[in-house]
Structure formats: structure tokens, C-alpha cells
Write a structure and sequence with these properties.
This protein has helices at residues 6-11, 91-100; strands at residues 56-57, 62-64, 75-78. It is largely without helices or strands and 111 residues long. It has a three-stranded antiparallel sheet with strand order 1-2-3, with no helix packed on it. β1 (56-57) and β2 (62-64) form a beta hairpin.
């Protein structure tokens, strides 16, 4: 990734190097000084393979919408007080769905 050190080019021909895709800041976790931020994804979004129901259960009982939500910006609820099926009827999930359909507001999926 990135520029190849000139000393390596003397050992390995440039044509033999495999170029990978650029770094991706999964969930915005990389320092912006290391990686230029991508433009947010615009328009309606969908989760492939019903992934909106493949959530992450944290040790404290919180259920986050996505495994890329490192900052826990989309906590659906907590299984110590909520039933799992009820999480999808609470305002937090409705707001995520609205934002996936294009409503303004932060959505980790757009990063």
C-alpha cells in the first residue's frame, strides 16, 4: 500500500509488485492525517443479506446496529431491559432506517 520504497524497486521489479486497493477507514477509525477521507455515500442504502438484523451484542447488554460502529453511535437498545424483537420498533432503529433511505443525519453506513 502506498509508495514503494526506492530500495525495494532495486530488488523487486515494479512489474512484479501487486497493487492493493487504497486503505479504507472502516467506520472512520483511521487518523485523517494518515488517510484522506472518502466522500460519504449518497442516496438510499440497503444492507445485503438482511444484515440489518445481524447486530452486535456487547458485554454490557447493548446491541449496536453494525460491527463497524466502533464509536457506538447506533445503539439499538439493551437486552437487559429490552426484548430483541422490540429493538426494531424503537425510535433508534426507525431513525437509522430513515437515514438509510436518505434522511439527513449521521449514519455510519455512509462512511
Amino acid at each position: 500500500m502506498g509508495e514503494v520504497h526506492p530500495d525495494l524497486l532495486e530488488i523487486i521489479p515494479d512489474t512484479a509488485l501487486i497493487r492493493s486497493r487504497p486503505l479504507s477507514s472502516r467506520g472512520g477509525s483511521l487518523n485523517p492525517k494518515i488517510l484522506e477521507a472518502r466522500q460519504p455515500i449518497a442516496g438510499a442504502l440497503t444492507c445485503p443479506d438482511q444484515r440489518q438484523h445481524r447486530n452486535v451484542l456487547l458485554p454490557n447488554g447493548d446491541v449496536t446496529f453494525c460491527c463497524m460502529d466502533f464509536e457506538r453511535r447506533h445503539v439499538l437498545g439493551n437486552l437487559l431491559r429490552d426484548r430483541y424483537k422490540d429493538l426494531f420498533e424503537l425510535p433508534t432503529f426507525s431513525e437509522i432506517v430513515d437515514r438509510m433511505n436518505g434522511k439527513d443525519g449521521f449514519l455510519v453506513c455512509r462512511i
